[in-house]
Design goal:
Elements lengths: L5 H7 L7 E7 L2 E7 L2 E5 L4 E7 L3 H9 L1 E6 L5 H8 L14 E3 L5 E3 L4 E13 L2 E13 L11 H4 L2
Antiparallel strand pairs: 1-2, 1-5, 3-4, 4-9, 5-8, 6-7, 8-9
Length: about 160
């Protein structure tokens, strides 16, 4: 694998991203992971993108199930973000003891997140060590209207 220039990596740190839990359900199993690379792609139909690392357990589950949900986190949810980001779903049930509900696709949505989107995959694209999933938003809602989203900063998030 080619290395990335240090200056490029430093500059990319200044791209602002929220913090999200991307979740899915497949063959009776739930899983989720923390992600920062989520964005709106279209107004009509409502489409979003989620970039997921190919080595992540959820990656294969999303490919196989064709569905995912996005729970949008606020600053007070940083421990939830760490919970879903610091261990693998291959070895643990990340939803054990977590307050969630399922929506249209069956993907889990965190009950106390700021807002959520429930999506079906309409396409996906290779993006180096990630796959960009494009999801059509089938349902969504706001739990904490007016709340500010958690902005990802690697140094403080893992600090």
């Amino acid at each position: 694998m080619a290395s990335v220039k240090e200056e490029v990596s430093k500059a990319q740190k200044y791209l602002a991203h929220g913090v999200y839990v991307i979740s899915t359900a497949h063959e009776g199993r739930l899983n989720g992971l923390t992600a920062a690379w989520v964005a709106r792609a279209s107004f009509v139909p409502p489409l979003i993108t989620a970039s997921i690392g190919k080595t992540r357990f959820s990656h294969g589950m999303i490919l196989d199930s064709g569905v995912f949900a996005v729970s949008i986190l606020g600053p007070e949810d940083i421990e939830l973000g760490r919970h879903f980001g610091l261990k693998t779903g291959r070895k643990t049930d990340k939803f054990e003891g977590i307050d969630y509900e399922t929506k249209v696709t069956g993907s889990p949505v965190l009950k106390n997140c700021i807002a959520w989107l429930d999506c079906k995959v309409v396409s996906f694209h290779d993006a180096g060590d990630h796959t960009i999933f494009i999801g059509e938003v089938l349902d969504g809602g706001v739990n904490r209207d007016g709340a500010a989203p958690l902005i990802y900063d690697r140094d403080s998030f893992f600090g």
